[in-house]
Amino acid sequence: MGENVVAIAEFLTAEHRCCDENFAVVEEAAQAGDTARCQREFQQFQAAMEWHFQKEEEELFPTFEQTTGNTMGPTRVMRLEHQQMREALAEMQGALGQGDLDEFLGQSETLLILMQQHNIKEEQILYPMCDRFLASNAAAVIAAMQAVSAHPPA
Amino acid sequence: MIPSAGLSLEQAPPFSVPLRFFLTAPWFLVLAALLMLWQGPGIFASRWLPATLALTHLLTLGFMAQVMLGALMQMLPVVVGVVVPRPRLIAALIHILLTLGTLALALAFLASSPFGFQIAFGLLGVAFGVALLAIHVALWRAPVANGTVIAMRWALLALLVTVSLGLLLAGFFGWGWRVSVVIATDLHAVWGLIGWVVLLVAGVAYQVVPMFQITPPYPPQFVRGFAALVGGGLALWSVCRVEQWSTAMRVTGTVLAVGLAVFAATTGRLLGQRRRKIGDPTLSYWRVSMASLAVTALLWLSSRLIPTWAQAPQTDLLLGILLIFGFAVAVINGMLCKIVPFLAWFHLQAQLLGRARIPNMKHLLPDAAIRRQGWAYLAAFLLLLAAAVDPAIFTYPAALALGVTGAWLGVNLAGVGQIYHRLLQSLPAEAKSA
Ligand SMILES: [Fe+2]
């Protein structure tokens, strides 16, 4: 029980840091003007982000909503922000497809802020709430999130 | 008003709330430059001259407090998860009172006018009263007390002390209240610059440096201890200052200076470990800022060891320039260049909802423009330091550089605001009311 208290926060925060590292690699490739490498790295980054969103949207958020009976609160805002980031990622993909690395870098700057602002809210507010409300259930929720297989966005 | 159509704007206040503060602040740098041009080299003779005090307050209230209060109204909902009540009304009220109050205070110093101090007392008293109340309410409602929230609570406590002492001093000049002016001024300056400004920047840095430069987090022991060390150290130092216990003052002062140096060094080390490899103007501003803070601490420590330095009026002036213009203005300038284009983009995409193409942040404010203005900032900073040592030669060049960097920043930010409004107006009328 004791070790479960920070379990969800720890698990998902580690995923955020992992995505951050991916982001830095993508950005570096774009700055270096290496379109092919940037494309490769971006694909990985976008997939990692999408998979992380799916784990939250398909497992964590529904469990949180059922447990707290609140579907209009923080999880709704988080879902909307995921949608915003998906759109920003799609725009980046478009710019990369046209080989416009300048445009790509301008949009990646925006995505970084969007992403970190979202991460701050989750790490500081939502995940601690999840750990508080789902404490006894945390191991099961994490297992369920690990079992989510990456698939294209709905 | 355009409804925010389900996007995640519930928690973000309207763009006008922070923007009005951000667009006003740079012009106070220009006013400060004009004051220097008018007064000439004499303004650097001592920190106690009326014109020097007017200059200081144009920078601290006009630029620093202006941006910090605007940013807090924007940031609290995002970082802390609480909403400042009636954001538009409160922001407009604070902004107008703070702007007029700062002007009144500067004029009161310059004209030695008791009536001017009475006006400034009223305007600034209400401005900070409302701001402190709104922000305190928000901070104490914060659901999670993390390192940032704790540092900000200490920072607000320090702001409360700073403002109270400032009002007391205004009462002295305005109505002849009985106040020990020298002691109250020292406490006012130290609580303002070390308490409020350093702790607020630290609280922001804990979030912003690791997240946006992609660095490891601040060491948790540091985050836990720093705010309490600075807050407690300041309280002890203040008692010693009032009681004139000079040895105890030296000891607490040394602890504080070492604490600031450790914060600067820790941040510098994290920036050195950043995973983000691309060049970024904000990064340079963080570096200048932390270097200034470290030099402030070193200069203060060495001036305690070298009595001739401790007595020289230049030492206090240099400390002030390093802390105000080097440490605080640098961080604020760097953040403004990110936050204004981002917020413009954020509100545009929420309101246009795909009906028009939205320029990315770097189109709203190009890196090249940020970088050139940054060089002007650096020139102004170095020239100000030189002017503190040799006013006869450097005062006018410093004033010119200060005016250039301030106006340039103002123009850069206003440009973003212009694109924002133009794009919103370009929408067909039915789309706007949708
Ligand atoms: Fe998320």
TrEMBL record, chain A:
Entries under InterPro entries matching the protein: Hemerythrin-like
Gene Ontology CC: plasma membrane
Domain called Hemerythrin-like: residue spans: 8-130
Transmembrane segments: none
Protein name, entry field: Hemerythrin-like domain-containing protein
TrEMBL record, chain B:
Keyword terms, alphabetized: Membrane, Transmembrane, Transmembrane helix
Membrane-spanning ranges: 21-38, 58-83, 90-111, 117-142, 154-177, 189-209, 221-239, 251-272, 284-301, 321-348, 369-388, 394-416
Nucleotidyltransferase among keywords: no
Superkingdom per UniProt: Bacteria
Protein name (database record): Uncharacterized protein
